[in-house]
Here is the input.
Amino acid sequence: MSFEKVAFEKDSSKALKNKKLRKALVNVTDRFRAARLRASSQVEDWNELRASAREIKKGTIENLDKYLLMLEESVKRAGGKVHWAKDAAEACDIIVGIAREGEVSSVVKSKSMATEEIELNSAFEKNGIKVVETDLGEYIIQLAGEHPSHIIAPAIHKTKDDISELFSEKLGIPHYDEPEELTKVARERLRSEFLNAGMGVSGANFAVAETGTIVIVENEGNARLTTTVPKIHVALVGIEKLLPRYEDLSLFLTLLARSATGQKSSTYVSFITGPRRETDTDGPEEFHLVLLDNGRSGILASEKTRESLYCIRCGACLNICPVYRQVGGHSYGWVYSGPIGAIINPQLMGIDKAPELPFASSLCGACRGVCPVKIDFPKVLLDLRKQVVDKEGKSNRVGWHLFEMLGIKLWRLTVESKSLYEAANKIAYYLQTPWKKGKGNLDSLPYPFSRWTNERDFPQVAKEPFRKRWKKIKRELG
Amino acid sequence: MQKKLEKKGIKAYIFVTCLVDTFFPEVGVSMVRVLDRLGVETEFLEEQTCCGQPAFNSGYQDDARVVAERFLNIFEKAINDGSGKEIYIVCPSGSCTSMIKVFYKELFHNSPSLLELVKRVSAQTFEFTDFLVNVLNIRDVGAEYGGIVTYHDSCHMLRELGVNDAPRELIRSVKGVEFKEMEMHDACCGFGGTFSVKFPEVSVSMLDEKINSIVKSGADTVISADMGCLMNIGGALSRRNIPIKVVHIADLLANKGKKA
Here is the structure.
């Protein structure tokens, strides 16, 4: 399955009709939201921590060139290899190349949004290499042939019954009703995959420039197995995941666990510095770090939207977002969803491939309020909206966009002059006459206003605008 | 009933907003009446139209800039009116106030001379309830209203301006009001300006949740400080024949005796 142009209106419309999905979304986001609130309110200086984290990320991103070279040095010093991938194709080539060189026929993967981004699974499959997702949620969607619909809970769009059905069909087992039974089946299948795999692929939550350590947080233990059992470990890491110092981790791990799942700490936190050392009893013989750009340096170059790179992928913005809550992850049309998807998908894919996404927000700002690095989502969205308009201005406008452009131009002409504005008010008052039914609201209007009146009434233009009333009230009040 | 202000010489220039001017003029009238009752002199500059937000939010920043500059020039005259009074610009909308106080800085970030003007104008600009509580230090305006009331936080008012307590304190001080907080009172109602017509199905599904919260609260009246949200909420309530009244906080505060 590959990604094409994002179709938010179409896909969200489909999602809104899926009652099971909507129920699941409300349940899961409510649960995550409550957990985050509880966990964050236990930390007295939570907002100060967020502000510090933002400062550290800002400093890192603004000096990324320096820290990336430092990271490369540190990883090499620890005995690892470092690869630079400018885009998805190059990253896939590098990783498939490492597998070929190591004569690997079977790969296990732990959860990684970056590997979703480069569509690594299909690259492996095209080259005849078997790849198995080992995070339970990812395992489920791999069996279903779908994409993740949430950054940290990839299969939240699937109910227990969906999974029971899917396991029965794909794994040839009876229908199990209990989650424990389903999990047990997955665990048994995955154990043998771990033991047979020649290579483990992971992402990373953080990469520490000073020490060359990559850090992975998880709750299932599958990432620890992925990164220790097979002979080769490849970590694919977006270049924005850097932290300068080892000591920065305590702050970021606190913020990540509490923001993501409401845990004080994730069940497993793995710190991986290079491959197995002589004194180690286990661990991979080879460690490869693949640093992925894939559009990130473009974001770095844009001063107004650069803070999009501060994101630590906790998913808190998804869980608080009133839009995500209705439409789910797949409506965002690419790997990332919710508010963070609305700002980074257009920037990573190219804004012409996702021109709807910066508008897929009411600009309510709830996301900014929970973001552990305080990304100013509304500000970034507004700048991206401007970019869309500037770009579309050069091409032909059709349909809704034409109406919008004409509407804005007409609006500007009107509000730039008192007399035109007053005349427009008067004209609008008379224009509404055919749709008026007495003194009440208007219950139908022609396109494009019908997009409002299909399900909502619209107020009447007042016979006497405030400016007329002002003169009277002024006299009355003296 | 609150006494008239002891300190005289406060003058409020009304920025009534295009939405109130065109569709809900009584909200502007109510705001003027409340201010007058408290001893604040009011003035309305007829040159005013819109703050520019519709274009800004739609990505048409060049168009927004022209309209915003026009706004700034009009209200620059207000804050320099030579009356020797304490001058404020007061607006019955958290959203339009945010445009001026928060987003004008973004819009004019490249023009230092206009930024200076933005600073001066926005320092004197206040959302209506914020002005009453945090500038005038008044909570009881002497209003009466018999009803069970709930309050919807408009997003811009809450998260751009940080105005949270002021409207609630004012509502609780209205004689006869029983205040009931709804669940998810700070969740967006789905309006979002052009968002409501760009993605109407998403907008309405957000609105559904808001309507459910309002109904569940048991209130017979829903109050907010933004007519954008109230137009959206009210549009659904009236379409669905749900007998819950939609009232702007200025109308509530202007109310005496009989129901608003």
